[in-house]
Amino acid sequence: MNKIEKMYRKIIHRLIVKYLIKCGGGFHHGSYGEGGKYVRLFTDEEYNRMRY
Questions:
Q1: pLDDT band at residue 31, thresholds of 50, 70 and 90?
Q2: Max Cα separation, the chain?
Q3: Strand locations in the chain (E)
Q4: Which end of the chain has less Cβ packing within 10 Å, N or C?
Q5: Where on the phi/psi map is residue 27: left (φ > 0), alpha (ψ -120 to 50), or beta?
């Protein structure tokens, strides 16, 4: 990955995080259930609890 791609990804990541914080930490796209797509912010504690 070159320098421009890294910078682009960093900017997109920041925009996504700002949006998630603005909408309460998560959003949903598509159908509900197993076919749905979900995005959520986690604290370190929540992430580690789900990971193990």
A1: confident
A2: 38
A3: 26-29, 37-40
A4: C
A5: beta
